[in-house]
Amino acid sequence: MELFQSLSPEEMERLANAVKVQLYASGENLCRQNEPGDTFYIIREGQVVVSINGPDGRTVTVAHLASGAFFGEMSLLTGEPRSGTVTAETDVEVLRVSKQAFASLLQENADLTGKLAAVLEKRNEGRRTAMAASIVHETAPETRSALATRIKQFFGLR
Q1: Rounded-to-10 torsion of CA 9, 11, 13, 16
Q2: Are 15 and 4 in contact (CB under 8 A)?
Q3: Is the pTM of this model over 0.70?
Q4: Residue 91, domain CATH
Q5: Which residues have a Cβ under 8 Å from the Cβ of 10 and sit 6 or more positions away?
């Protein structure tokens, strides 16, 4: 996974040992837009749909994700509310990574926040493009250094 490519094999093993497997039935919400969150999801099996509520009240589908895809990284890394609602289109099995599971990695690897911010910046650009195409209110782009700062603040790092 692009998000975890900068982890060492030992860090990957520690993270893998901390993840939890969770099952969702078709039609069930994994997370809802604007809810607080500090969990990251990796789809192991199945398919989900990501939708957002626009300022006009319309619900817009912005993505369909399947096995190997991930979501929730901004909530995990910055503590910000969920940017969309994720609903199981089929029965889904996900791996859940909590803030607690990720905190020790960030505390031990000072360079990791910058690397993660670079991946988030890239994903945010894709999200902004999808939102703009759906006529949803667009926020100003956030720089990599600003994202790295938010990650450090959320995890209490210096």
Answers
A1: -130
A2: yes
A3: yes
A4: 2.60.120.10
A5: none
